[in-house]
Design goal:
By secondary structure, this protein is mainly alpha-helical. Helices cover about 85% and strands about 0% of the residues. The longest helix has about 60 residues. Pfam families: SlyX. This is Protein SlyX homolog. It comes from Rhizobium meliloti (strain 1021) (Ensifer meliloti).
Length: about 70
């Protein structure tokens, strides 16, 4: 009976060690993904600013009218 308890404790310790390793790996991956999200967000912000600037410039441009042959 004591041997069964020791084996059970050993299996539980192995399981906990495996879970700790998995949690650490997932945490590292999450941190890397967060960096990618932040970089993507920064790019989107820059593109949005550029788009709005170009849109504003286009509104200031001469309006397109029908050519005289229409």
């Amino acid at each position: 009976m004591m041997r069964d308890a020791e084996e059970r404790i050993t299996r539980l310790e192995e399981t906990v060690a495996h879970q700790l390793k998995t949690i650490e790996e997932l945490s590292d991956q999450l941190a890397e993904q967060w960096k990618v999200v932040e970089q993507t967000r920064a790019k989107l912000d820059r593109l949005t600013e550029r788009f709005l600037s170009l849109e504003e410039q286009a509104q200031d441009a001469t309006p397109v009218t029908r050519p005289p042959h229409y």
